Amino acid sequence: MKKILSFRYVVVSILILIGIWEILFLVNDYSEALFPSPFMAFKALIEMIVSGQLLESIITSMGRFVIGYGLSVIVAVILGLILGSLPGAFKYINPTLQLLRPISPTAWMPFVVLLFGIGDLPAIVIIFIAAFFPVLLSTVSAVMKIDDIYFRVSENFGIKQPQLIWKVILPAAFPGIANSIHLALGSAWIFLVAGEMVGAQSGLGYQIIDARNNVRADILLATILVIGLIGLLLDFLIGALEKKILKAWGGEQ
Amino acid sequence: MSYIHIENAGKTFKENGQEFTALLDVNLDIEKGEFICLLGPSGCGKSTLLNAIAGFDLVNKGSIKIDGKEVAAPSDRNVTIFQNYGLLPWRTVIKNVELGLEAKKIDKAKRREIAKKYLGLVKLEKFENSFPRQLSGGMKQRVAIARALAVEPDIVFMDEPFGALDAITRMKLQDDILEICKNEKKTIIFVTHDIEEAVYLADRIVIMTPNPGKVKSVITVPLHHLRDRTSGDFLLVRDKIFDLLNMKTEELIEYTI
């Protein structure tokens, strides 16, 4: 991670992006209001920071994200550990999971709004759904793939449920689970914006809709950049955390 | 009745509708404190027999009794040591040794004390805070031995424990295990396909043959610990086993004048 994000590469990479943007700005025929330059977007960003609007949106969105993603991971991992330990029961539940899994979380959106109305809940629900299936299914498969020898050793030493789950099953499946938690973070963040665009009156996603309604393409693009930056930061943080935990686990990596 | 009493024990599997006999009519009596090697080629049922006595996969014919009680499930009175160690990679060496003690509800300080004692016995006290992945194969198996002994079992089962190790490490561990046996006085049932290993370690060798897996004969090794791998007596026992396993080729010696 350090190498990928080393300072020189980051600067050059972003300069290339801004360069392409600037060129497109110079050659296109749209009005400035519809297609602003990088500098105009930057000014809009400063404007939002100064007015405090950006911070407020970020806090609102992060709150929803932490609740939705956090709950999703906790529920999915616990359920996954249980279902993974009961392959017989999982056979009855797996077809339903496979049916629900390919449905885009946004497809649930109108239904969720109908039930809960506009507010925090639709965004939280959509993030929950986005992270839930990948983490649940990876946890189940990680548990099912645990080497039989760990169970033999536990059985031999008289380690029974519920200790078995905490002492053996969770740690043995942990590398697989951690990986899926990491991947799910990215998709959860993507669907946060979708959720807020449809089901909320605040947050970063709503800010994009609001900017469109006011024909403020500069604010719109600045918000998109902020969303990207936060996504990158979150990914970096959880990646570092994952590595640290795996190391503490003494994993075989 | 002897300590471990095996009577007409047999095991059959059903695979794709076909019945397969893994073990047929095994009769064997083992006394307390004996070192028994189950020896034979792969498929002879030696691991099946070990798993049956250890309680992992029970026999479906005949009976196996330990101390007069029918074997029904694994117990921490009888600990198994596996070829691929079975150490928990997320635990340090000392926490691995403490694993069996945790289930016995021994308090933390006492656990640590016992674990240290047994790590000392296998000469790994310096590695108590290492993770298994940082150790060599021989060291990992010594951790597994310490973990098994820490719960003070009556019987130690070993399923080709040194099979994944290089020849020199294997010989060292064989010496270690003999010394530990002498001091700890455990009953040991040891599965191997290595004839020399069996002759070096065992009080009695149970020779098994495949298709179906059964006991061909049981020979008592008339040697004393510690044994000399190059002595004439040693080679004589080895030779006898080669003979029993039909591994001696009839050599036609030609004399030319």
UniProtKB/TrEMBL annotation, chain A:
Q: Mind telling me which residue stretches traverse the membrane in this protein?
A: 7-27, 33-55, 67-90, 110-143, 164-192, 219-238
Concerning Pfam families, the annotation shows: BPD_transp_1
| Primary location recorded for the protein, binned into one broad class | membrane
Q: Which InterPro entries match?
A: MetI-like (IPR000515), MetI-like_sf (IPR035906)
Q: Which UniProt keywords apply?
A: Cell membrane, Membrane, Transmembrane, Transmembrane helix, Transport
Q: What's an example GO BP annotation here?
A: alkanesulfonate transmembrane transport
Positions of the ABC transmembrane type-1 domain? 58-238
Where it sits in the cell: the answer is:
Cell membrane
Identify the domain of life: Bacteria
The family database entries (PANTHER family) matched by this protein are listed as: ABC TRANSPORTER PERMEASE PROTEIN MJ0413-RELATED, ALKANE SULFONATE ABC TRANSPORTER-RELATED, MEMBRANE SUBUNIT
- Protein name (Swiss-Prot/TrEMBL): NitT/TauT family transport system permease protein
TrEMBL record, chain B:
The entry's protein name is NitT/TauT family transport system ATP-binding protein
Protein transport among keywords: no
Q: What keywords sit in the KW lines?
A: ATP-binding, Nucleotide-binding, Transport
Q: Which domain of life is it from?
A: Bacteria
Q: Which InterPro entries match?
A: AAA+_ATPase, ABC_transporter-like_ATP-bd, ABC_transporter-like_CS, ABC_transporter_ATP-bind, P-loop_NTPase
Q: Residues in domain ABC transporter?
A: 4-235
User: Membrane spanning segments where?
Assistant: none
- What is the protein's species of origin? Acetitomaculum ruminis DSM 5522
Pfam family membership, one:
ABC_tran
Record flagged with keyword Cytoplasm: no
Stored PANTHER family? ALIPHATIC SULFONATES IMPORT ATP-BINDING PROTEIN SSUB, TAURINE IMPORT ATP-BINDING PROTEIN-RELATED
| Any GO MF annotation of the entry | ATP hydrolysis activity
